[in-house]
Specification:
This protein has 440 residues and is of the alpha/beta class. Helix 5 links the parallel strand 1 and strand 2. It has 20 helices and eleven strands. Helix content is 43%, strand content 14%.
Length: 440
């Protein structure tokens, strides 16, 4: 058994207390729910499911939209949303499952994509199989790949973090660069442009934070690789994508084009204050960029740079989550039907989620809607959502495996040495060994 599970078993001592927290799907179950899920039930039949999620203004709001849409054909349907922090949700889920206590869990649960394979593999027969419940060919392939374990698809894809290169048009224009000069470039070209921007405007091209692995994650996935292999082995040595990723990371740091930051506030503050010319991040970063109202009309978005390596793409992903259903839920069939007919296959849901909450999904049929084609005054009239959704179809699919966080921690432990000039081959070997120690 891996170390991750051993730690969870220790935490299981408190399972009795945690099992009593939140809503109990068994006590809320309606005996007629399973029979009436597909038919919509009688007008007077009350059908209730419970969902756990974090961030009520985003994830919770999405569930409320889905509930409204489902109630149009299922008037007796009711959704109870239990809001808690992401950390608390994951702790309660892990503690209960490790102890074999499932009665205190909800019907539906939000799962961060990097945790999908860990949960499914560590807790077999716990999560419902959606393989034949949703037409997954209608979703961006890389999002479905994250949900697929041993040929089965567990859950419904939700929001995505398809990446783009946000850039200050005014800064780039001062240096003589036009929008087309930022299209489909390599990271080496990005560094060259950054040096020109720094020399002529005094502005940094980007930020860099050695305690955050966001950029390395974006680079790896853009070339179809990850920190670990599909077999959950460390993927640091004998991996040309990893070597190129860290070469580029160090080149950005050494070039002087990146402003050092130490946390989220400094990162956001750097572009809100106008200190940097570009921000390479997920589509969800739009809201933070638009917080600087005085910068309206000065921003645009281009595809991210690519690694100069076979398979390198100008597209990647940062973040995202999906919805699971607990397999032992008394309301399993109803919960599956609810998700399948809303988040799993309803363009209206995704149009409303975008216009009301700024959320972008991977449901391809919605991409041609007016909502996704809207232009943004802040971004100079660009149809930014149309661009992001196009890039989402180009993101390479990868297996996130069971130990992404452990692998990221091993990398972050060595990053300072890499930035200080350590031999890259030796550093990669050290990271591999540390990762293996963590998960053995």
């Amino acid at each position: 058994m891996k170390k991750m599970l051993s730690v969870s078993m220790v935490a299981a001592l408190s399972a009795g207390l945690l099992a009593g927290c939140g809503s109990n799907s068994g006590s809320n179950a309606n005996s007629s729910a399973e029979a009436s899920a597909s038919s919509g039930g009688s007008a007077g039949a009350k059908q209730k499911v419970v969902a756990w999620a974090w961030d009520p203004s985003f994830n919770g709001a999405a569930l409320k939209i889905a509930e409204e849409l489902y109630q149009q054909d299922h008037p007796g349907f009711e959704l109870e949303i239990v809001d808690m922090s992401k950390t608390d949700l994951e702790q309660k889920l892990n503690t209960n499952l490790a102890a074999g206590v499932k009665s205190g869990l909800p019907d539906i649960i939000l799962v961060n994509d990097p945790n999908i394979q860990k949960y499914v593999t560590a807790y077999p027969n716990t999560f419902a199989d959606f393989t034949d419940k949703v037409d997954f060919s209608q979703f961006s392939p890389y999002k479905v790949d994250a949900l697929t374990v041993d040929g089965k698809v567990y859950g419904v894809p939700f929001d995505i973090g398809v990446t783009g290169m946000f850039y200050r048009k005014d800064y780039l224009e001062q240096v003589g660069f036009a929008p087309q000069d930022l299209e489909n470039i390599t990271w080496d070209r990005y560094i060259e442009i950054g040096k020109a921007v720094k020399e002529k405007t005094g502005k940094y091209m980007s930020t860099i934070n050695p305690n955050d692995e966001a950029l390395t994650s974006i680079l790896l996935q853009s070339a179809g690789s990850w920190y670990i292999t599909p077999e959950n082995k460390g993927n640091f040595t004998n991996n040309p994508v990893m070597a190129e990723t860290l070469r580029v990371y160090k080149a950005i740091a050494d070039s002087g084009i990146a402003k050092p930051v130490t946390g989220w506030s400094e990162f956001v503050g750097s572009f809100n204050a106008g200190d940097v010319a570009t921000v390479v991040s997920g589509v969800w970063q739009i809201a933070s960029i638009m917080d600087a109202k005085d910068q309206s009309g000065k921003w645009a978005v281009a595809p991210i740079p690519r690694l100069n390596i076979d398979g390198g793409k100008n597209a990647s992903n940062e973040g995202g989550s999906s919805w699971f259903v607990l397999d032992n839920s008394n309301n399993k069939d109803l919960a599956i039907d609810f998700l399948a007919k809303t988040i799993g296959g309803n363009s209206t849901f995704y149009e409303r989620f975008l216009t009301e909450n700024g959320g972008v999904g991977s449901y391809i049929p919605a991409f041609s809607s007016d909502a996704y084609g809207q232009t943004s005054e802040f971004f100079g009239g660009q149809a930014i959502y149309k661009d992001f959704t196009q890039w989402s179809t180009e993101v390479p699919g990868i297996s996130l495996g069971m130990y992404t966080q452990e692998a990221k921690d091993a990398l972050k432990n060595e990053l300072p040495n890499i930035l200080n000039g350590a031999d890259l081959t030796k550093s990669l070997s050290s990271i591999q060994k540390l990762f293996e120690q963590q998960v053995q």
